[in-house]
Amino acid sequence: MHVLKASSLVWSVSLIGIIIGVIQTRVLATQLGPEGIGLYGQCLALLAVLQMPIGNGLLNAAVRYVAASHVQHDYATTHRLIAHTQTLVLLTVAVLGGALLMTAPYLAAATLGSAEQGGLIVLLALGLPCAAAASTLQAFLRAFERIDYWAVASAVPLVLGLPLLVGLVLLFGLYGALLQISLLGLITATIGLLLYRRIPVVREGPLLALRLDRTILRQLLMFGGVHLVTSASFAGSFVVARSLVIHGQGLEAAGLYQVVLSISMQYLGIALFSLTVYWYPHISALAEDEAVIAATNLFLRVALFTITPLLVGVVLLRDILITLVYGPDFAAAAVLILWQAPGDYLRIISSILAVPILTGMQLRAYLLIGVGRDICFLSLFAVLLVNAGLIGGAVAYLLVNVLTVGVVLVYQRHWISFRFYARQPAPDCEFKRSAACW
To answer: How far is residue 373's CA from residue 405's CA, in Å, rounded to a whole number?
Structure first.
């Protein structure tokens, strides 16, 4: 599929998700009230944490290795990788779901404020298999670079999920909202399976691996583990940063900081979503260094061509944007965007440039760069927050991303002689990267 068509499909799905997400938030806020939507948000956060070993670990590794074996036409390895991934996902869901069911009252008391909310935890446990199945099938569609199938399997459930949410919330309140998550996962998995079975190569392979291959198991767990650690480190760094703001600057300042982060996450999602969905498996399947360099350059240009006008618009219209969306009480957050937006711009650049480090199996370097970035961010954030308030925290984010771009560029230059140019990758490249780089 042409890169511009694939990127356009991903961005379109992302935009649909944002629009529907805003409408859903409005529905939930109206029907559930502050307390109900607070519990709903906490349940979503719990589900996201539970899915991290699958989504940020196993499936990212599977996408990398399936894409690489498929481009070589090594279908036997492709079948084994798919079977091992599905087996590991099934085992992970069984362990996590069982743990949720057995500890529902205790977990509800610890995270939702009362053991009486244990029914919500049970609903999460029932929804976990559906969500995992949907994520697995979508990951395989990405690995085979069937972004057209992925877009259908993602957009159709989003559209169907809105009236489903409204009906279930009106009937069952908060329990209906959580039930919608399970049904939405089931719908996504069903559509994804129908499209996935249209790919000829997957029809011949086994569903599960009855005997686990140590080599494949090591590849999936090592690669997935590194990606999981860096993802958890990045998410955790902002949890700690929010805590520092709450304890050091107060709840009002924390609210202003949350406004900036929520705006930031919207355009970061648009820019980096296509990186995860299309470019990550695409670069994983490339062989020669020159092809990897050309593909990285191409995506960098496509992403920046799209995101630069959006970021400029956010900066110029920041006062109007915050007033319209959040209200005049949050107008003080506008000045923070002047520092946050350039930091996000550099964050996008560093994320794109770092993809070949991960797909090229430079796992130790990727881990050190990712975790080191987050440690530097928190250290500088804590110091500047005390001395300059929230602006200091935003400046810390900007400075750390400047440093990260520099470190990634130096490493890429040393490793594959990376430079900025416009040549396209050769069409007959074969995958040759070794998994022994660790």
So the answer is: 10
